[in-house]
Amino acid sequence: MTPQPQSNLDVFGNLPVLPKGGNPFPGLRSFEEDEDYLFFGREKQIDELLRKLRMTRFIAVVGVSGSGKSSLVKCGLIPSLYSGYMALAGSNWKKCVFRPGDDPIGNLAKVLAEPGVIYDDDELRPTYESIIETTLRRSNRGLSEVVRQSELNPKENLLIVVDQFEELFRFSRFEKRTSADKRDSLSFVELLLNASQQASPSIYIVLTMRSDFLGECTSFTGLTEAVNQGQYLVPRMTREERKHAITGPIAVGGADITPRLLTQLLNDVGDNPDQLPILQHALMRTWDYWQQHHPDQPIDIPDYQAIGTMRQALSQHAEEAYNDLKTDRERDICEHLFKALTDKGDERQGTRRPTKMKELSSITQSEADEVATVINVFRDGNRSFLMPPSGVSLEPESIIDISHESLMRIWGRLIRWVDEENQSADIYNRLAEAASLYQDRKSGLWRNPELQFALQWYDEHKPNSAWAKRYDPSFERAVGFLMESKRQEEFEVQQKEKQERQKIRRMRTFTAFLGTAALVSIMLFIYAALKQAQAEENAQVARANALEAEKQTKIAKRQKKVADYEKQQAVLHSQEAETQRQRASEQETLAKSNAALADQRAKDAFVAQKIAEQQEDVAKIKTRDAMISRAAAKKSESKADSLRVLALSRTLAFESQRQYAAGNTEQASLLARQAYLFNRQKDGPELDPDIFNALSKAADDREEFSGHSSGVRAVAAIPGADLFASAGDDMTLRIWDSTKPKEKAQVIQTAGAGNFRSLASSATGKYLAAGDLTGAVTIIERSSGNHASTYPNVCSSSVNAVVFRHGETDLVAGGADGRIVQVSPQNGGMKEVATTGSRINAMAIDGSDVLAVACEDRTIRLFGKNFQPIASVTCPSKVKSVAFDQRGRQLAAGLYSGMIVVVNMNQPNRIADQWVGHLSSVNGVAFTDDGKRLASAGSDQTIRLWDMSSKESITLKGHDSWIWGLQFTGKGTALISCSEDKTLRKWIVDPDLLADRICKRVTRNLTPDEWNKYISNVPYQSTCK
Fold it and tell me: Which residues contact 960 (CB under 8 A, 6 or more apart)?
């Protein structure tokens, strides 16, 4: 059993004495290791930290900003380790504390090289640092190698504390933007994870991290799983603990506080953990005011009100410091200084940005002593706004940092500066990206209004390369692109002005030309009128002469016709005689031709008969081919029509989601159902993602069940009823009615149970069983009023899996210690039946009592009815979850890598199929009763529904954190999922059910106008009968 950490008393049982003139409250900064005698109210949490560190060697202390993570580690955990309070580890500890910053591996090398960590020689420190960094960068085992090669005594333990771990995520985003070939952030995480998994040397890793950055862990392979296993969520302090945190330091300082002020402080701080650093700052200010004005009296409300109370104290104090700056130059440096030390990030989460002194000089374009003057104003005396604290000399390599994020949220001036810096960074990032695309000939230069906006920003903020490299190192390229865009814009303006001038000149020339042309036209008109009169007079004379000539011509024609007639009569008589002679000769020739023609026609008739017979055969063949072609054409036409309608169904599904986003819910619902109808009529895929998502949104299928106060780790459907059970990190078991999501769950009282990790229902629902983090199993007999019995020490550590064997006579539990234990539900009798030698993460059992065990060593072990090993299959990564289909023919397993593997039970020693869909570990898998679909739940906050034949999947989103497990209910029509976000959700996954639900909600069909608008080329039909 872990020894309890000692209280804040000294060796004589007395409270230590505060140095004269000192202040027992640190203000915004965290407590330091030598201030543990001032650290009150966290005794229970320290013990839990020690227990977790002993079990995992890797813990992540997670909490909201201001919850006291760093103080808990520095003033709670570290002194307790030095005192030997962690069982089996002793009191021989070396430790190093650092922050990742913009060089996580380099910063780790620096703290390891400090004298007294793993080396003692200060003179060789630069050499050690270089050797250590080279070793760290060599492989993912570099940290273990560094410690093995060091002067560390084998009996000594090394504690590595990575404070403000969320800084690594900002650095990782920077690496992605700059397309770094080798990303230090990934290598750094691998170093920590590998070192924590080695038995020797004895290395322990502790991270402190803000809880709003937990989702970022999924970007790093293995980190999500390690954080999950070793996560310690800093709890809210109880009112009594907060009271102790106020009165304890005051007592150490030798003062008293009035009850009414104590009550006022407790009420002002409330339950918001973000108020804790603000409380510490207000107490620090109140103490100073009390000491200066009436130290002979108890601290009272007037002292508290004098400093502005918690509401105004911090902002007033920071503004006082700002007003102490003497010149505009100092105030300008101050603005750029604080902008450089803050970062809103891609997700607008405010974080600190520790920066070297020399870098701040470059960013502010100031001398080091000018920057130091401003920094000292904000850290001198009781102004602990900037770190390092006063008294520590500032060197070019000194790291300057804001003492706490709460300053970014409280000080009004800094809030405005942070917003301005974020906007400035956005403009620069867009500019840098545009410059990169322009260089690659994928985009053009900027034009107005974007160009004008960027030029205005450039002139007002005057950015430099030192500032810009924190966001994108290609500052010169970006500025060159901006200037080139400006030159091109100015050139185009000049060209437009030139064209306008040329246009004006052309207009003037054209106008002059028109005036001259008009004058010439008038003169020509007068001349033409005179000539027309003269022409008319000459025309009259010409007409008279023409009439006389026509008369003489007619007389001559009559005389010519008489002569021609007489000549023709003579020629006719001569021709008739010749014709009679030729006719006789032609009769003779004709008789000969007729005889030859008759002979030829007889031959032609025979040939024609043969051709007719051949044509009849050809006609029959063509008739048959035509019939075949007609059938094929009809089939092709039908297929084309089906494809057209299926394509239309996808279009309608897309339009439905667009209308839903616009708030037109009824029209969106009708379009979604019509898409479903078209898809079903044309035999489209049953689980088309677009149509399913449209149906799901329109039917509003997601129902939320809330009540747990912490993450929900397991869920189990209870057969024969609309009920399901859940188990959570809040140490409670609950039973829910799946048809009534708004009703509170029935909470089952369990004595001695810990944080639950697994849950199962027996085949008839008579029993429920849950395994917890302490190694205990709780069994609930539902037939006896949900009576709960808890059996401790089933496993030596966390019970990660429980399953009932066929017939409900036995329960099988699997633990992190690799043991498989059989437990009797009736009396809790236990028997170890098998061992895997590796951590067990999940188990499943089929109808014939074949047991599948998912192990940390990448294997799935299969055991027979008598627990004899029958098969083993090795997977590409650690196995996180496992499930059989209803008939025991297929086995599916979810892996830490995000992959899903399928094993055919006819060949249980090999993987039959592999699917990739999730981005992080697959924490749960489940088959529908018919085995046609598989559901999977991942740490990437998604559920995927897979079609076992097509291997296609649809994605369900709705949870806000890791999804731990899921179960099908209602014969596979619905899913129940549980998540770290403290909720369970019910998802309707049957498209038919979703489509029917839509018709129960809408009040009409699509109108003819809507039909013609969205469909048109298909005859109208009622969407809902």
Answer: 941, 979, 981
What is the pLDDT confidence band of residue 662, given thresholds at 50, 70 and 90?
confident
Dihedral angle of Cα 563, 567, 569, 575, to the nearest 10 degrees: -160
Which residue in 538, 950, 548, 923 sits closest to 758, CA to CA? 923
Which two structure tokens, joined as six digits, stand for 97?
A: 């504390």
For 33-235, the fitting CATH number among 3.40.50.300, 3.30.70.600, 3.10.20.90, 3.40.190.10 is 3.40.50.300
The 10s digit of each residue's pLDDT in 563-579 is 565 556 545 555 554 55
- Three-state SS sequence of 919-986: CCCEEEEEECCCCCEEEEEECCCEEEEEECCCCCEEEEECCCCCEEEEEEEHHHCEEEEEECCCEEEE
Of the listed ranges 496-505, 577-586, 730-739, the one predicted with least confidence? 577-586
Residue linked to tokens 């862990």: 217
User: Would you state the structure tokens that stand for residue 12, as one six-digit string?
Assistant: 């004589």
* Dist. CA 653–CA 995, nearest whole Å: 12
Please give the pLDDT value at position 625.
63
Strand-pair category, 231-233 with 203-210: unpaired
Place of tokens 């890793």: 205
For residues 830 and 822, give the distance between their C-alpha atoms in angstroms, rounded to a whole number.
6
Q: Fill in the amino acid letter for 827.
A: N
C-beta separation of 208 from 166 below 8 A: no
Q: What is the pTM of this model?
A: 0.51
Residue 599, both tokens: 């002979």
Sign of CA dihedral 741, 744, 749, 753: positive
16 vs 1010: CA distance, rounded Å: 81
- What percentage of the chain carries pLDDT values higher than 70? 84
| pLDDT tens profile 379-410 | 887 788 898 888 788 888 888 988 888 888 88
Question: How many other CB atoms sit within 10 Å of the CB of residue 870?
Answer: 14
pLDDT digits (tens, 9 = 90+) for 809-847: 789 999 999 999 999 888 888 999 999 999 999 999 998
State the DSSP H helix or E strand holding residue 409, giving kind and residue range, or none if neither.
Answer: helix 406-410
Mention every residue, 6+ apart, whose C-beta is less than 8 A from residue 418: 339, 342, 344, 350, 408
Residue 408 identity: M
Q: How far apart are CA 514 and CA 456, in angstroms?
A: 48
Mean pLDDT of the chain: 84
Give the span between the Cα atoms of 307 and 283, in whole angstroms: 9
Q: Model confidence over 206-247: pLDDT tens digits?
A: 999 988 888 889 889 899 999 999 999 988 888 888 899 899
Residues composing the chain: 1025
Backbone conformation region of residue 171, classed left if phi is above 0, alpha if psi is from -120 to 50, else beta: alpha
Q: Which H helix or E strand runs over 250?
A: helix 239-252
Pick the most confident of 115-129, 178-192, 985-999.
985-999
Quick one: pLDDT band at residue 919, thresholds 50, 70, 90? confident
Span of 180-189, 199-208, 663-672 with lowest mean pLDDT: 180-189
- Does domain 837-981 match CATH 3.40.50.150? no
Burial class (CB in 10 A: 0-12, 13-18, 19+), 947: middle
pLDDT of residue 621: 66
> Rounded CA gap, 235 and 258, in Å?
28
Q: Are 109 and 129 in contact (CB under 8 A)?
A: yes
> What DSSP assignment string belongs to 86-119?
STTT-S-EEEEEE--TT-HHHHHHHHHHSBTTTB
Q: What does DSSP assign to residue 817?
A: T
Its CATH class, for the domain covering 708-835, is mainly beta
| Whole-angstrom distance, CA of residue 635 vs CA of residue 639 | 6
